[in-house]
Specification:
Blueprint (H helix, E strand, L loop, with lengths): L2 E8 L7 H11 L4 E6 L5 E6 L2 H11 L10 E7 L3 H5 L6 E3 L2 E4 L13 E4 L12 H10 L9 E4 L5 H8 L5 E5 L2 H13 L6 E5 L10 E7 L2 H6 L1 H6 L1 E12 L4 H8 L2 E8 L2 E7 L1
Helix pairs in contact: 4-5
């Protein structure tokens, strides 16, 4: 039976630790984690890695984060190669405006003519629709015109936002992620929704991506990643275009918006999470 090297990181998971969570996301990115899951008791994260060496190096790097509120760090090996699917087996469909995101086992047999159904098979690609940031991005995406406009989804994960833009009429659509596992999950989801040939799916680092001039950019990342790459992301937006960003808390939003130097045209919050609509 396959085992996945993982770390359990203990800290209080709420808005009070948003700065710590941003620091953790930014630090973990250097070690290419497969996935980050909140622990059932909401007292930390379980982070999965490709290799034990990557996990152990990450543990050493994070040891100094105790000064920022990080508690115990536990290394472990999680058995069963199907852990991601099993952990999400209880998910049901969620609806945001005209868009319903459903796992394969909760697909509606019928729906209203103006409703859109996107089927997402839960895996290691972030974006089942159940996280607040995904829902916030889906809401903002439906608040702007996207039909016949070029859309680029940065950090596509499961492909859900790229699929939503495509279903709303965006053309052409490009989906970018640097994680091969996320790309594989996205490829399967695109095919399941009839968009396999319609969406340009790329496994690339943002810095290597040569595209630009998009009318709509979606980027559901973290505050630290958005701020770090703000110049590159802003350069992808065509004059008069729009950018939807999320993955941060309301208290972090001013810093994110300031980093982009674009007009704040709309915002949404849900619980401890926020999203912003920026205009070029």
């Amino acid at each position: 039976m396959a085992e996945y090297p993982a770390l359990d990181l203990r800290f209080r998971v709420d808005s009070s630790t948003a700065p710590l969570q941003d620091l953790l996301y930014a630090a973990l990115d250097d070690y290419q984690p497969l996935a980050v899951q909140e622990l059932d008791a909401a007292d930390g994260w379980r982070v999965f890695f490709r290799t034990a060496d990557g996990r152990d190096a990450a543990a050493l790097a994070l040891a100094s984060f105790s000064a920022h509120g990080l508690g115990a760090i536990q290394s472990l090996a999680v058995p069963d190669e199907d852990w991601a699917r099993r952990s999400q087996a209880g998910l049901t469909a969620i609806t945001v405006g005209r868009i319903t995101v459903a796992p394969p086992w909760d697909v509606a047999a019928t729906r209203a003519a103006d409703q859109i159904q996107i089927v997402i098979d839960p895996s290691m690609g972030f974006g089942t629709g159940h996280h607040q940031t995904t829902r916030l991005c889906l809401a903002l995406l439906q608040s702007i015109p996207v039909r016949d406009r070029r859309l680029i989804d940065i950090g596509t994960g499961s492909g859900v936002l790229a699929l939503a833009g495509w279903a709303l009429g965006a053309r052409p659509v490009t989906a970018l992620d640097n994680d091969p596992d996320a790309i594989q999950n996205a490829r399967e989801n695109l095919a399941a929704n009839g968009a396999g040939a319609a969406i340009d799916l790329r496994c690339e680092e943002l810095g290597d991506f040569a595209g630009g001039g998009a009318d709509v950019i979606t980027a559901n990342l973290t505050a630290a990643v958005l701020i770090t790459h703000a110049d590159r992301l802003r350069a992808l937006v065509a004059p008069g275009g729009a950018m939807i960003v999320s993955g941060f808390g309301p208290s972090e939003q001013p810093d994110v918006v300031r980093a982009f130097g674009l007009e704040l045209a709309g915002e949404r919050t849900e619980g401890e999470w926020a999203a912003a609509l920026l205009h070029g």
